[in-house]
Amino acid sequence: MAGLQFDNRLSAGNILVVLGMVVGGATAWGHLNGRADSMAAKLADHAASLSAHEARIRAMETTTARQDERMVLILDSLRKIEARLDTSAHPR
Questions:
Q1: Alpha helix (H) ranges present in 1-92?
Q2: What are the φ/ψ torsions at residue 40 (nearest 5 degrees)?
Q3: What is the DSSP letter of 71?
Q4: CA dist 53 → 12, 41, 56, 61, 63 (Å)
Q5: pLDDT tens readout for residues 48-92
Q6: Measured between alpha carbons, how far is 61 from 28 in angstroms, rounded to an integer?
Q7: Is 9 helix (H, G, I), strand (E, B) or coil?
Q8: Interatomic CA distance for residues 22 and 38, integer angstroms
Q9: What does DSSP assign to residue 90?
């Protein structure tokens, strides 16, 4: 370390380099904040879309369950009709 020497004078080039670093850092910070805000807005939009899709799926599940129950009732009625037809068609 004995061979290293630093010049502690402040030059215009040093000031310009520090100023460029500060401006670049501030620009990068502003850009990252803007992207973070954009991502937060997109996340909120996706959450709302997901909620809407879940509501539609629930409605479709409810409708399907009702249709299934109706089909079971129709099938029961058909079986009863078939049973009556079988007993009345062949009197003994």
A1: 12-89
A2: -65, -40
A3: H
A4: 61, 18, 5, 12, 15
A5: 999 999 999 999 999 999 999 999 999 999 999 999 998 886 655
A6: 49
A7: coil
A8: 24
A9: S
